[in-house]
Amino acid sequence: MVKTILFYILSIFSFILSGLEACEIISHHRIIRTQFVDLNFKDIAKSTDCNTKEKLQFLNAIQNSKGVLNPRIFKNDLGVTASIKPAKIKVEVLEENLINRFNLTSKWTFRNTHAIGQATSIVLSEGEKLSYDCLNCTIPGEKSIKVIIRDAIKGTEKFKWIKSSLLTRSYALVSTTDFHVDNKPLSFSNFKLQEVFSATPEVYFTKKNKLRFYKLNKVLRKGKPIEFSTLSPVSLVSIGNPVSVSLRYSTLSLQGKAIPMKNGFYGELIQLRNIQTNKIIIGKVVDFNKVVIEL
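Given the sequence above, the corresponding structure tokens read:
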């Protein structure tokens, strides 16, 4: 009788202990994740007997970490309760790998990285080596990048194609409010000069002190950079209305008045009639009702 009771007690104790044992996640030796795309658990794990909560713990740990992760880091620093294999997992960021592979400086970045019909993340087993092949990956624009995974010992070779945009750092005037189309000149007070990444930085208008000479020709939403194509010049001088004329020659500067013979925009050369002599002169529009003649 005592033996029977002891047997049941041991069985129950064993059952409780088994319930307390950590579940297991078997992953890969090396995981290369994208910087701006969320991972899928099935893409970075080979097998598991863990529940959803424990899977999410591991997934978040990989998503938000990089470097070599070991059991102590997983448990103490990242809060992963599952038992993780292999004992060491190296986590890298794909976009950073590409920057290093093609010897690009910090002013460059890869964005919008994805793989069509397959996982964007890259996983490698022990002994596998990785390389990238890309045409023109030193100039901005859309890129097709070939991922090559080789195992020299097994003699195997695998390929994957990913798409990504190579962008360069530049600056742009970004709207701090929503704008609608009207004929009002713009003010820098509604914009901020901000760092942006773009494949075509030349399209951005960046002269904050010249904004007041332009108006919008289309709607501009808050947080969007302003481009040359969204601007139309404002007429700074009007036909028939007297303007101030400055004559500049070396250190000499003379002031006068003249009558524009047409409307004029910033930087435009226009004909004017001298009020005193009635002679036709040519000057450059530099501000509202201001023209400069440079000899």
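Residues 243-294 form a domain with the SH3 type barrels. fold (CATH 2.30.30.760). Try to locate this feature in the token string yourself.
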